[in-house]
Specification:
The structure is a single chain. With 169 residues, this protein is an alpha/beta fold. The chain has four helices and six strands; from the N terminus they run E-H-E-H-E-H-E-H-E-E. The protein has helices at 28-44, 57-69, 88-96, 113-122, and strands at 2-8, 50-53, 78-79, 104-109, 133-138, 152-157. Strands 3-2-4-1-5-6 form a six-stranded mixed beta sheet, with helices on both faces. Helix 2 links the parallel strand 2 (50-53) and strand 3 (78-79).
Length: 169
């Protein structure tokens, strides 16, 4: 059984001419949202074998929060430049390179690629808002065997889900 967890980076600074898209950092509400989702995530999955992040500042900051919540060493977070602005095809190529000894991998990245990959894997439309997580299980023996509709979505959460808003007016 293979597990792929996709975590879209949290809310970040607004794009402006004074900062590049790549260098945008998380805002306070993004940090709070990530912590909220990670509290839930930590009850649903074991520590991943690998956490791989886009090198963009907002994605790495999100990955650091995730690592802490899942008791994964922050210095072991890997970055992969291809995740930044990745298309569905790019993300498929990244998955094809995963090592077979790794059975649970968590990727931190961006839309639209992450929503497109989630839809592709699950076979139904999935939109990942900021700080959303989607987990997929595959009854496959290799990462390269992953294809359209091959994933069972076992986990989906985001900051404004009902799980986090019980009792809210």
């Amino acid at each position: 059984m293979l597990e792929l967890i996709l975590f879209r980076h949290a809310r970040s600074e607004t794009f402006s001419t004074s900062i590049t898209d790549f260098d945008r950092d998380l805002v306070d509400s993004g940090i709070q949202d990530t912590n909220k989702v990670c509290s839930y995530l930590a009850t649903k999955i074991d520590t991943p074998d690998r956490i791989i992040s886009s090198p963009a500042k907002r994605a790495l900051a999100t990955a650091d929060i995730i690592a802490t919540a899942l008791q994964y060493p922050e210095d072991a977070i890997e970055t992969q430049a291809e995740i930044y602005e990745a298309s569905l095809k790019n993300l498929q190529e990244i998955i094809d390179t995963f090592r077979m000894k790794d059975k649970r991998i968590l990727l931190v990245g961006h839309n639209p690629g992450f929503s497109e990959l989630s839809t592709y894997l699950a076979g139904n439309a999935m939109a990942l808002p900021t700080a959303a997580v989607a987990g997929f299980r595959f009854n496959l023996s290799t990462w390269k065997a992953i294809c359209q509709n091959s994933g069972q979505c076992f986990l989906f959460d985001y900051p404004k889900s009902d799980k986090h808003n019980k009792g809210a007016n």
